[in-house]
Amino acid sequence: MTAIVNEFTKMRGLRLWPLLVAMVLVVFGGTALGIMSDPEFDPGAPGAWNHPLMGAAMALTMFSPLFVAVLASRLVDAEHLANGWLFSATTELPAGRLCRAKVVALGILLVATTGTGYLAVPTLGSLVGIEVPFPLGRWLGYGCCAMVIAVALLALHVLIAARFEDQLVGLGIGVLGLLIAAASQFFPTWAGHLLPWSYYALIIPAGYTADALAELPLSYPSIAALGCVVTALFLAATGRLDRKEL
Amino acid sequence: MSSIVATTDLTKRYGSTTVVDGLDLAVPEGSVYGFLGPNGSGKSTTMKMLLSLVQPTSGEVLLMERPMNRATRRGLLAHVGSLIEAPPGYGHLTGRENLRLAQRLLGLSERQVDQAVRTVRLQDHLDKKVRNYSLGMKQRLGIALALAREPRLLILDEPTNGLDPAGIEEIRELMRRLASRGTTIMVSSHLLGEIDKTATFLGILSQGRLIFQGSRADLFQAATPDVVLRCSDPPAAHRLLAARVPSTLTGQELHLAGLGDHHVAACVDTLVSHRIGVFDVRRREQSLEDVFRDLTAGGRL
């Protein structure tokens, strides 16, 4: 717990606020675009909520991979610069435990920020006068799945940033991940299970079929499996880091 | 005097490279133990093994007469402060915020932190960001972080690295104050002049082996300074003695290396018996640097 509180102290002065604000604005902007981009949008139509849902999902898919990479890089790089790994080890906080504390602290920030941005769906939908009942279950379902993927990516990026002192490595992987997430919409379903970034394609809440924007099923079992596998791998990797000599 | 740090046959190998070889350290409690050695001699690796940051390949570490292992590590390190490699400090945070991080992790009181800060005389700079500290201030912050837990043993790895003379004097003065309060200090350096002024016991490492351990007086006794001899015919004297003893002719002086007193007397006898007048026989004054260089160049004692 103390280690997690310390991570929030370390975040001061790292200028994360512009990034967090940008994340919220991007999701709001994406949601608005989802509504305005269709000239035939009808707030009274049964599938009206698909527009803001799809807009928010596109924004999260496009922005989260890079957002997560930058967050992880900023907080982990502070340890490289401050000789923090060695100092923490002498205070009985080995590298693995430190990484776990960083994922928890950044995860809280990530969920809070993304959740705030995701409120754009009911907010903007109500503002434009969508009349049909709000699909709360579907909205929550997509939100939770997107958070699981984002936190899984966060865990991966914390490990990459800890392993490679040159933060360009992690940021480069983040950019690559963004491209994979964007392109994965066109992957076959089985290929969407290959890489963490491609899981975004498995949870797109709405998409264009032959003639209209329709609701798409969310792949909950796949996301649950991703969460379990990444958690197990992360714990194994950080356990190894705990025993690594400095 | 009991040893606060004792190692038995401490060895560390990386692959086929032996970095530390069979160290039997004994750091007396209450001393300032100068841990000397050229770069790459294994000083930092040894200190990391004492702190359990690196696992020994073989041998044992005893801190405060208890073996260092996974079970005892936490309890032992609570009494040990350290500054290894570069001083720690998050540059984007103030000195005060950096201390707060350590305070939370170690469960320290405000009194302990405050006392550590006053000991290093950093109280007027706590609200500055560490990135704006001078190197000396960063070193002092690192030492404050090590001191905050009121350790019985302080392990400092080259604390004066990169400091200007004023900064070096500050650290030296700090070590003297800490030692006078009974803290055992183990300080490594390749700045021999600094160790000479501060340490009461010395350990000299060369290529991973401890080639000397003892007091400063013991070290000078163990080392044999050159004999400098002036005579009436230096070239003839050199020709006469070079066949029997290591001899070099420098200007008008003959330098005889590694001779005990009886050998010196024998050399004088030889010269006199060959009708070479002996004007002056004396031992060359050696600084710790001279002794250290001689010892580590040959790896001998």
UniProtKB/TrEMBL annotation, chain A:
The keyword Chloroplast does not apply. The chain crosses the membrane at residues 16-36, 56-76, 103-120, 140-161, 168-187, 218-237. Keywords: Membrane, Transmembrane, Transmembrane helix. Coiled coil: none annotated. This is ABC-2 family transporter. It comes from Propioniferax innocua.
TrEMBL record, chain B:
Keywords: ATP-binding, Nucleotide-binding, Transport. GO terms for molecular function: ATP binding; ATP hydrolysis activity. CDD domains: ABC_BcrA_bacitracin_resist. Gene3D superfamilies: P-loop containing nucleotide triphosphate hydrolases. SUPFAM superfamilies: P-loop containing nucleoside triphosphate hydrolases. It comes from the Bacteria. Residues 5-232 form the ABC transporter domain. It holds the Pfam family ABC_tran. Belongs to the ABC transporter superfamily. This is ABC-2 type transport system ATP-binding protein.
